[in-house]
């Protein structure tokens, strides 16, 4: 629902406030894409021209394609995800391969599967703190043939178990989910400041634990599917103040989407940009040698 809080956010942050609010109102910004897991499969779908940040193992579906209903889906040839999730996960492309990847907030599995395809990790740990979300996660990993260990742990417990081991950590954080509206889904309270602030506090707690997972020189990917500055740029600013040894990475492929709302590199996708419902991503690195 477009309320005064959504309008306020639009006026403060959106490059084209009217187009943003129209996209929320229309609820038609979802842009399905498929992440191909194996080489050699036929690609039976009509695809859109790729975005600059899109890896070659992802195809954005042309209108009318229904990849979720094709037999190849059940065979685990690909995973379906919104193109905005690809925008976020594509920050991983080009990072060193073969290390240990920990996905702290993994269910239902899209980012973990992307990391498996992009980084060919030696060890992939997919964690989901909410027990009932573990089933869909393990089901998707199994269907897609992704070799991963799963955990159901609070980030603090995960950090105790795996401290300093990860070459890459993913925090695709639980958030207010404002972009659900742009996908035509209901999400009452998504723009309410109390909800946004409570999500931001949870994101900070998760990140503070997740930093402990990083090996020297390791990378931390932070992403959300929401537009609130408090859950995006402000969370990263907080993280940099708390852990000044972290550096934020430039993503040249994402340059057209650099956020003007921070003095460090981080990237926003809006639902009126034509690449899905929108989201936010920042990539950080821990120092090569411990401070
Ligand atoms: N990365 C997933 C993907 O690409 O399919 C989506 C992750 S979703 C945006 C956020 C996840 O964080 C949810 O599965 C949610 O259950 C989990 N979560 C909720 N509270 C959490 C907490 N306190 N610590 C860690 N994860 C949490």
List keywords for this structure.
single chain; 291 residues; alpha/beta; Rossmann fold; eight-stranded mixed β-sheet; 11 strands; 19% strand; globular
In a nutshell, what does this entry contain?
With 291 residues, the chain is an alpha/beta fold. The chain has helices spanning 4-13, 17-26, 71-74, 83-89, 110-119, 134-143, 155-162, 179-182, 193-211, 233-242; strands at residues 32-36, 58-60, 78-82, 100-103, 123-127, 149-151, 166-172, 214-224, 247-248, 267-269, 279-285.
Structural description of this entry:
The structure is a single chain. By secondary structure, this protein is of the alpha/beta class. The chain has one domain (4-285): Rossmann fold, CATH 3.40.50.150. It is built from ten helices and eleven strands. The strands form two sheets. Strands 4, 5, 6, 7, 8, 9, 10 and 11 form an eight-stranded mixed β-sheet that branches. A three-stranded antiparallel β-sheet has the order 2-1-3. Helix 5 (110-119) links the parallel strand 4 and strand 5. The radius of gyration is 18 Å and the shape is globular. The model has no long low-confidence stretch (mean pLDDT 97). The chain binds S-adenosylmethionine. The site of S-adenosylmethionine has 18 residues, from helix 5 and helix 9.
